[in-house]
Design goal:
This protein is α+β, with helices and mostly antiparallel strands and about 725 residues long. It contains 24 helices and 19 strands. The relative contact order is 0.11.
Amino acid sequence: MTAPPLESVRPAGTESPSEEGHASGKSGRGLNLVAAARPYFGLIVLTSALLSVLGVVAMLHMPSGIYPEVAFPRVVVIAQTPGLAVKDVEVSVTRPIEEQVSVVLGVIRVRSKSVRGASEINVDFAPGTNMIQALNDVRARMAELGSQLPAGTNTIVERQTPSIFPIISFVVTGGKNPSALYDYAYYDLRPRISRIPNVSYVTVQGGDIREIVVEVDPQTLVAANLSIADVADRLGKEHRLKAVGRIDQGINGYQVIADTVALDPSAIEDMVVVEKNGQPLRVRDLGRVVISHEDRTKAIRSDGKNAVALTVFRQLGGNALSISNDLNLVLADARKSAPAGIQITPVYDQGNLVRTAVYNVRDAIIYGALFSVLILLLFLKSIRATLIASLAIPLSLLISFVFLYLTGDTLNLMSLGGLAIAIGLIIDDTVVVIENISRHLAAGETGDGAVDRASKEISGAVIGSTFTTILVFLPLAFVHGVIGQFFQSLSLALSVSLLVSMVVSLTIIPVLASRFLARRAMPTTGPIYAVFANAYEGLLRVGLRFPRASVLLALLMVIPVGWLAQHVKWGFMPDMDEGAFVIDYWMPVGTSLSQTDKVARRVEDILRKNESVAGYIRRTGAELGLYATEPHRGDILVSLKPENEREHKAKMQDIMDDLEKEIKGAVPELAPKLELVPLIRDQINDLSGVDKPIEIKIFGPDFNVIRELAEKAGQI
C-alpha cells in the first residue's frame, strides 16, 4: 500500500501549499518538517500521547539506585573459617585460593588479607574482561577447591559492583537474650525480607548463635584412655540423619532413614562413646553438655544497646525504590507479630536518597515550566503560545524515559543529574521556535505559510545548537575507568533528552502552533521586549564598531577562569548532604574485641548526645560490605535527621567536622586512627579499590621488615 498524496489528506480549512506556503517553501534555507507533518496532526498528537504514557510506564519500571550499573574488573572472595589462627588461615585458606584463582583467564593481580578466622582475596582483571564469565570462572575454581579447605569453611564470591553494598540497614533490639534476638532476626525476619522482589540477599550480624557445648573432664578422659578427637568423632557419627536403605512393598517404594539426631542436651548425654568391659561409657560419664553460643568475633550495637543488624542487598539491576517500599510494608507487618520487648528500628534507607533525587528532578521540571511560562507570557503576551511552549518539557522528558529504558539505563544520581541539566536546554529550543513563529504572526503574516517560514528560518540554528551541546558532553561517554562508567549515564541521559527536545521543537511545537495560532492575530512584543532588544542592539553596534577591543575584552574574561581553577575544590563527586556518613576506627593491632568494644562505646555516648543524629549502627570486628575484618577495627554507620530538623539546621559536613573534633578529644585512643567519610564517597572508594588518592604498597618475604618500612613510608 502506498501513502496518499499530501493534498488528498490535508484537513479541511487549511491552505494548500500552492496558495501561500508554496512560495514560502522555496524562500530561505532551512529544514521544513512542518509542512510534511501538518497533514498528520491527529497521528502526531496520538503518537505523542502514546509515547508519553510509555514514558511514564518506563520511568516506573526502570531500576533505581544511587549509582549507575557499573562493572568494575574485580571479583572479591571472602572465606570464613571461625576459630582458625591467622597463620593457619594464610597457609590452609588464603594461599590455596590465591593459587586457584590466579590461573583464571584475564587475571592481572591477586591481593589478599588474612585475619583470624577469615580471608579476603581481591582478584583484579584486565579492563574489558567479561566480568560475568570471569565471576563464573572464579566460582568454578572455588568449587573445585572446596574439599581441600578446612572443614566448616564458608566462601562468598561476588563481583565488585554497587550492589555489593547494602541499600537498607536496620536493627533489632530487646528480647530475652542475644541468642533469642539472633534467632528471631535470622529465622523470622530474614526469610520474609529475602522474598521481596529485587532483593539479592540479607545478612544478619550480631547477637549470639546458639550451639551445644560438650565439656569433657580431662582426667576422666585420660582414665578412659580416650582423646577429645575420639569423643568428637563418635558424636559426629551418632548425631546425624542418614539414609540406610529402601523397602519395596507392592507398588510403593520406601526410603529407610536412620534418625539419631539429638533433640536436646540430655539426648547427647545419653549417647554411647565407647564400651569398656562390656559397659557403655556415655557422654555424661565423661563430662557435661550445656547450651551456649559461638565465640563472639564481632560486636553490634545501636542506641546504646546490643543489637542485631540486618542489611539488605539489591540484585544487580534491582529497583531500590521498590525494595524500600516493600520492606516498609514487611517490617510494619513484622512488628505486629514480633515477640514482646523486641523493637525493629530502621537506620539507613538508600531509597530515601533516590526518592529525593527524583523529587528534585520533578521540582526542576515544575520550576522550569513555571518560569518559562511566566517569561513567555511576559514577552509574547499570548496564553496559547505560552501553553504550547510549556508542553515541551514534560513531553521531551517522558519520551526520553522510553529511550533510556530501551538502552538499559537506570534512574541514578548521574542520569537524573543529566536530565536536570537538560531541562533548561529543552525549553531553550522550544522558546526559540515559538518566539520566531510569534514574531512572524505579530508582523501581520497569517496561515500555515507563516509558521512554515518561521520554523524553516530557525531550524538550522536549533539543530546546530543542539548538536553543539551534545558534542560537549559526548566525550564523557568515552572516558575509561571508574569515572567513565559513571559519566556515561549522565552523557546518555543528556544527549537523548536533547535529541528528543530538538525533534519536539521542530515538529510537534510548530504543528500545534499551526493549528492553534496561525489564524489568530498575535500581540506585539511590547515595551519590555523592546528594552532588552534595544540594549542588545546597542551593545552589538559597539562591538562591531570596535572589533579589536571586543576580542581583547573576551580574552581578558579568561583570566578569572585561571584563578578559579586554582581555588575551586576538585573531586570525583560533589559534596552532597545524603544524610548518612561512616566513622571508620582502628585500635592498635592485637587489641581484643572486648577492649575495642569498650572504647567504641565512648564514641556511642557522643553520638547519642548529638541532636542531629537520628540513629546509628556500630560494628566492631565487622564492616559495611564484603570484608574480612579484625577485632581491633570497625565502623559506625550514622544516619542524620532531615536538614530542617537538625540542630541549627546544620550541614552534614559541619556535623562531621564537629563530631571528629569531639571524638578525638574525648577518645584519644582513636585519635590517630579515625576517619569520618560521607557514605557515598566511602562506597566509591571501596569500589575503586583505593581508600586514599595515593596508596603505597610494600611487598616482601619478611612481614616484620615490611611493617617497619611501611611505618617509615607513612612518616614521609
